[in-house]
Amino acid sequence: MTITTHQTTPYAGQKPGTSGLRKKVRVFAQPGYAENFIQAVFDVVERAPGSTLVIGGDGRYHNRTVIQQAIRMAAANGYGQVLVGQGGILSTPAASNVIRRYKASGGLILSASHNPGGPDEDFGIKYNIANGGPAPEGVTESIYARTQTIDRWLAVDADDIDLDTCGSVDVGGCQVSVIDPVADYADLMETLFDFAAIRAAVADGLTMAFDAMHAVTGPYATEILEKRLGFAPGTVRHGVPLEDFGGHHPDPNMVHAKALFDTMFGPDAPDFGAASDGDGDRNLIVGKGRFITPSDSLAMLAANAHLAPGYARGLAGIARSMPTSAAADRVAEALGIPAYETPTGWKFFGNLLDAGMATICGEESAGTGSDHVREKDGLWAVLLWLNILAVRKISVDELAREHWAKYGRNYYARHDYEGLPTEQADALIAALNGKLASLPGQSFGPLTVAAADSFSYLDPVDGSTSANQGLRVLFEGGSRIVFRLSGTGTEGATLRVYLERYEPADGYLDRETSDMLADLIAAADAVAGIVAHTGRTAPDVIT
Ligand code: G16
Fold first, then answer.
1. Ligand 1 center to residue 108 CA distance, Å?
2. Do 356 and 459 reside in the same domain of the chain?
3. Residues near ligand 1 (Cβ within 6 A)
């Protein structure tokens, strides 16, 4: 088959962010835009001739177009095999599993995660390496450098393949296999969790609601929760993936999963509520009348993980991103295992997991996962919760209260200021950065600054350093505020303000979070001048 060399010129701004390249669909749809980026990936990543590439996505608008082109390009670039999910579907954790299981050299995951989808919304491409995890910074930097000099991309001249039927076809000498996106993943989950105990609890009356948000987890949740675990039909809501997610943001938080919250705080709430995001790596956990923050969920899962067969051997260590609350650190201390603090971005957990230094990882941004794959995993978190509740025969609320009574409670919230002019956001961060050194000793209301710095991470495995990963203001008594700019947005800048206050086990354990954080919220504005810099008097989203 003929390989055609297409001449091209670089597009500016193809720098991967926190999790791959995310832009508006109309940006990605420009001639050669996706092709330039994919060719840059193929030009720089480690792969032997004839190796296997995994391709999948969250089913959003524009997925199929890019998948067909990526297949033609993979064939022209010397891949021997391409594994692609049926219908172009592979959740991010399922793609990580497929890469590992079939020893692929890497994978392209087409997703903009929790961002909305549709012709005027968002699209994204990220590359995962052979361990199944997001490409580390060294690789994304090389990809970006290549996008700035790219002058051609290669594709075989071939028709689109049938993405909807499982089976194999030859495309220009490359074997392209359309695979069941769910089976391998569901089988992996059965090896980790006590499905018999969960089935027994369901038979005893355990009920749940899972909101798939018309995103990728619908088929996975239906197979696992309804078919394999016996939850009633209808337990999975919005279970059919749609290209525009039904017009919603597939972001499992209090704003975008409000219907689930209303159910869980309503009179007929089931025992357990959960949701996942566009590509299936985030999770939301909410019990009957009790929301569990992602930071608390990480801590509670780590404290009880030994109840699941896959973790009965115990944990080697717990890792969390820096803005995530320190709740998990207290569990690590009690278990006598190390706790690691990494920059935001799942890619930073990869080395710790590969080295066997951490078993469970989590982020405040609703991501939790383990060494079973190299991505955060929404359904995994849901199943571990179910496993724990089934074995312990207690409610989410009881488990949370018991946890806080033992470890104390890290009250926590994140305030997001979205769509800010980039110059305003940059000016705010620059001004705060400039005064960090003068903050220690200063008081803001009842809070006195103990230390302030710009977070820098030294990877204990490969010795690399990642600087400027967020500004921390630490107060006497253990409260803190973190300021950083999101690396996943597609329009303007998003300022994230992370607020955390620790209340010891003999303190106030069941107060309103907003009340407990009121002094910190006031201090955040006083320290950073949010209103002065942005004109915004309130955040757009609180999670
Ligand atoms: C991505 C990354 C996460 C990160 C989150 C938020 O999640 O994989 O590691 O915590 O973005 O990043 P930021 O604060 O820079 O927006 P996802 O689910 O969007 O892939």
1. 17
2. no
3. 18-19, 113-114, 277, 281-282, 321, 344-346, 363, 365, 367, 486-488, 496
